[in-house]
Amino acid sequence: MSAQGPALGERQRAAIEERGPGPVGVTLSVNGEERSLEIEPRVSLLDALREHLELTGAKKGCDQGTCGACTVRVDDRRVLACLTLAMTCEGREVTTVEGLAEHGELHAMQRAFIAEDAFQCGYCTPGQIMSAVALLEEGHAGDDAEIKEWMSGNLCRCAAYPHIRAAIRSVRDGQRR
Amino acid sequence: MRPITYARAADAATAIAAVSADPGSAFLAGGTTEVDLLRQNVLTPRHLIDINDLPLNSIEPQPDGALRIGALARMSDVAADPLVRERYPMIAQALELGASAQLRHMASMGGNMMQRVRCSYFRDAESPCNKREPGTGCPAIEGVSRGHAVLGVSEHCVATHPSDVAVALAALQARVHTQGPGEETHAYAFDDFFLLPGSTPDREHPLAHGELITAIEVPAVPVARRSLYLKVRDRESYEFALVSVAAALSLVDGTIADVRLALGGVATRPWRAMHAEDFLIGAVAQRANFEQAARVELSTARPTPMNAFKVELAQRAMVRALETLANGSPA
In degrees rounded to 5, what are phi and psi of residue B218? Predict the structure, then answer.
């Protein structure tokens, strides 16, 4: 571990609060609940969720923004938790796959993934479901080609893609009715 | 990842002062490149200044017909903007053909201009790399270079500029607005903003340390209303370009009245195809002229054995883009 560089100058310190590099107290709003944790600023949102808050739904597939298994929602947008530093989410609302169900009832997309058999090993599934819910809200599920393109950030090594699209279609069509 | 400190800035002047004061500090916007490269010890700032709260995310038409895009506007916001889609289809297409939906929600326009190359030697902190550690050499030239550049290369670096939207912005001659530590502002012509590698591939931009991009200004370019972005890649989505073309074309009685062309995936910077444009202005809009223009542009290409295919592929992509526009199906 290399030594730390000089801290910010006095003038800058007065204008801006520098935190870290050691563990600092952070409050995150996750699935509607205020959660307090002690983390270093270098901790990703994904590690904060999995290692500190025991929310292991979001998966660590690649940890470099290429697989989509860590997809969660920050405010109203689907993002990659592995490339998001946890501290940047203070004051924002984080939703993980654990927060989709309401009153013990699975979200329609979760039910559709089960009904359509939209997974084999299941590792990418939480990311697929978080992405699929956002996809419908974004209005990019018009046809299969559009679903394919706008879900391309979520890889599935079991290649369950046709069933994932079927699940998305079924929720889309259920909404239309 | 090395330990870092974190601070969230509420205004631009504070953020700029904080980064300017310390060479070990860096701005943090969308983080899609920066966090990745921090984790791999390719970037080594010790202090991050989060600029995501700065009010720099609006997209505003200007009185002179230009469109000013705030540096913190996200790729997805810009792609969805009605004025962008109407006036500059090539920008919206380039954005939507880049990265994934999640990354487009995160990545900012300013950050897109500052994104680092995808060269695997640059991104491996163990490899020599003139861009990462000046003077250590370039293993790509004799190594795995299939994705590397054929235009604007030097004996010190052949890394391809990875951005899609910067290719469209190069064709449109956008301007990059910045603010420096004394609150002074500067507007860079797009051509001046991206430096050729030459003997200093570590210098990619003319920016001073702590100088912050505040906006990208796209001038009124009437021909861009009929424009497209064509991207050729190894897989259909979520992949960087092997070759890409941003093109706009207007014809009068079958003759080319105005044209804009820029190339991606083949050059060390977003590559405005000036030679091809010069050849095409006033020429008859026919395939033979498109082919000749493409040949002229690629005549200075310096490929490696592994990426020589890009020279032909780039020419074919240019011809296809121009034919598509000439045949009246712009988008």
Answer: -100, 120
Residue pLDDT, tens place only, B132-175: 999 999 999 999 999 999 999 999 999 999 999 999 999 999 99
Domain boundaries of chain A, sorted by first residue: 20-97, 108-176
* DSSP string of A86-97, one letter each residue: GGGGTTSEEE-G
**A108-176 CATH choice from 1.10.150.120, 1.10.760.10, 3.30.1360.120, 3.40.50.2300:** 1.10.150.120
Would you call B5 and A2 a contact, using CB atoms and an 8 Å cutoff? Answer: no
Judge: A88–B28 Cβ closer than 8 Å, yes or no: yes
Contact check, Cβ <8 Å, A5/B24: yes
- What is the structure's pLDDT at A9? 54
For chain A, report the end-to-end CA distance as a whole number of angstroms. 58
The tens digit of pLDDT for each residue in A10-24 reads 555 557 899 999 999
H or E stretch covering A39 = strand A33-39
Partnered with residue A102 across adjacent β-strands are A105
Q: Does domain A20-97 have CATH number 3.10.20.30?
A: yes
**pLDDT of res. B183:** 84
Contacts of residue B310, Cβ cutoff 8 Å, sequence gap at least 6:
B150, B242, B243, B265, B266, B301, B303
**Does the beta-carbon distance from A21 to B50 stay under 8 Å?**
no
Tokens of B212: 């912050």
CA A146/CA B77 separation, integer angstroms: 18
Half-sphere exposure of B181 toward its Cβ, with a 13 Å CA cutoff?
11
* Strands, E assignment, B208-287: 212-218, 227-232, 243-252, 255-264, 271-272
Of the candidates B49, B57, B31, B32, which has an alpha carbon nearest to the alpha carbon of residue B214?
A: B57
Predicted local distance difference test score (pLDDT) of residue A4 = 47
Best A64, A71, A85, A136 member to test B by mutation, with max B CBs in 10 Å, is: A85
Which domains, from first to last, does chain B contain?
A: 5-50 (3.30.43.10), 225-326 (3.30.390.50)
d(CA B77, CA B320): 29
Each residue's pLDDT tens digit, B39-75: 999 999 999 999 999 999 999 999 999 999 999 999 9
Q: What is the pLDDT of residues B100-114, one digit of tens each?
A: 999 999 999 999 999
Chain B contact for A16 (CB, 8 A cutoff):
yes
Nearest to A132 by CA among A106, A164, A91: A164
Q: Do residues B138 and B127 make contact, with C-beta atoms less than 8 angstroms apart?
A: no
